[in-house]
Amino acid sequence: MTDTTDMTECAPRPRGQVLGEGYEAAEILTSARLCVDPELRAAVESLPGSLRRIALYHFGWEHADGTPAAGNVGKAIRPALVLAAVRALGGDPLSAVRAAAAVELTHNFTLLHDDVMDRDATRRHRPTAWTVFGDSDAILAGDALQALAQRLLAEDPHPGAPAAAARLAACVVELCAGQQADRALESRGPDEVSLTECLAAAEAKTGALLGCACAIGAVYAGAGADEVEALDGFGRQAGLAFQLIDDVIGIWGDPTRTGKPARADLAARRKSLPVVAALASGTPEGAALAGLYGRGSDQGDLDRMARAVEGAGGRDWAQLHAADRMSRALGELARAVPDPERAGGLLALAEFVTRRSH
Amino acid sequence: MTDTTDMTECAPRPRGQVLGEGYEAAEILTSARLCVDPELRAAVESLPGSLRRIALYHFGWEHADGTPAAGNVGKAIRPALVLAAVRALGGDPLSAVRAAAAVELTHNFTLLHDDVMDRDATRRHRPTAWTVFGDSDAILAGDALQALAQRLLAEDPHPGAPAAAARLAACVVELCAGQQADRALESRGPDEVSLTECLAAAEAKTGALLGCACAIGAVYAGAGADEVEALDGFGRQAGLAFQLIDDVIGIWGDPTRTGKPARADLAARRKSLPVVAALASGTPEGAALAGLYGRGSDQGDLDRMARAVEGAGGRDWAQLHAADRMSRALGELARAVPDPERAGGLLALAEFVTRRSH
């Protein structure tokens, strides 16, 4: 990965001049995956055997019995944001492949731990690591991935590496606080949570790492403090838009595409953003939802809940609020990267995550 | 902490010329605590409120209800080793206070997580964090402490900081593998574990971080690769000696001094090193111990177990083997620091941890 003249694999060039059409998000994601996977896999392969096995399973590179698997490692949105941010600010994406891998390792450390805490049994269409290896091994594999992420940055001679490492570590603290706030909200009654608290938790839990990914890209491009902060803001706002859409999908998504059971978030009584908006709506449907949330349910009840969220305006609110966050994200992006053509890659990624239907 | 002319607080000067008497370990530990605590506390205070509370409780700076406590943060052996290693290799200990705090944060991250996994209910004479705040909050606080440790190093302008960060991250991976191996050994039958496996797990779980502390000190002193590795070896071997003595204390220690119930390791059927040595001894007492380990027990049985470990030679073996590891530690130390006077601080610390009786 030292040849900086041929970047076709790592960052496709725009094929058109029209904003939003110049880059294909799917192509950017695939390119990022091609670039970052070798670094990511090498880091995971460097783990001692027993920890390596858990991590290889988690990333989808091995089955539970240790035989090779095709890999099903998610959409790589965060590493793609790192590389796209470098490119948008005039840097060399290839210089930031290690940093992009560090961000993805950090994301996966939090997934391993969150699944243990939340007792989530399925991720990416497969049983979660703790269900296969037990809580302790999943915790230890997560701990090791956080360490690997920091090791990659500590060993990176790029002048931006220490600042990126400090940002990533600060982001982990925010992610932990977000997960903690999210769990605290989930433990309260349906009438005891406010939309403001839920949005703050979502920003810390989801927005922070997307913002950090973009900011690290800016750091690697040698951008100034203002541009770095604007890109952090861009990622944060896009991350909140992403979470809002994700919460809509958690209620109305197609199980064959999401890999989760239908109405999963309702069955788990999650206080997702559309639900909390509905509960706070002051509408009869909101009151009905609060009643349904307080007791056991069958599939008919779950469908009734979904209709109540929709009737109370929770679905529309989430989609409008996602659009609002997206608009703020674009404002931040324009502040850091005024040239729309250069901003195209980041724009395509932000639109991809908020337009997806599964 | 920018005054480098007055180091009396951070690193007491030798009061005599005789090896081992020139430094008082207790004084070195107290000095290290005085130096490192402000940095450590500032890092913990930087956490968001809900995570901060857990960390302040864990470090003994707050009671469970959030009221201030005197602090009972352990012996600070690891930060003392960092500072003593810097001094032994001719560096300025004050330059490594942040690194010493990072090592102590890392140690405490592993304590928080290990206590969750091992269901240990007491640490430093107090209920463990997970018993007070729940598993998830203890896991999240541990995650945040690992991140804080790396953040301290990433923000440290010292030229040794990136190498120290990389070593610390690699060490965390080894600590995780050690904890995993330790748990795997504990889940096996008494006749299914070998002393070699147990020693390897103890080296990874305990020796690695003591070695890393010393190596980081050497890095901060600007030492060459050979000296850094020798100091890592010194810490590792002293760490194994420490673990062997700790395991002896886990059976024969005085509960009023250890803060743990009498015979705690036997009651928990831990495969500590004296126990495994006894089980592997081929003696009638070893066979009797295997029988006792396989079933429920009252206090009389625990006393019988302790006598069986002793009768099978497990206690003597552990003490002799600790002495052997200590001798290897001193060999490594002499390789890096041939001048016994300069090595005095590290020597005093190593002797302290292996001579303690509680």
TrEMBL record, chains A, B:
Q: Which Gene3D superfamilies match?
A: Farnesyl Diphosphate Synthase (1.10.600.10)
Q: Which Pfam families match?
A: polyprenyl_synt
Read off the SUPFAM superfamilies from this record: Terpenoid synthases (SSF48576)
**What CDD domains does this protein's entry cite?**
Trans_IPPS_HT
| Sorted UniProt keywords | Magnesium, Metal-binding, Transferase
Residue stretches spanning the membrane: none
Per the similarity annotation, which family is this? Belongs to the FPP/GGPP synthase family.
What is the protein named?
Answer: Polyprenyl synthetase family protein
Q: Which organism is it from?
A: Streptomyces flavofungini
Question: What is this organism's lineage?
Answer: Bacteria, Bacillati, Actinomycetota, Actinomycetes, Kitasatosporales
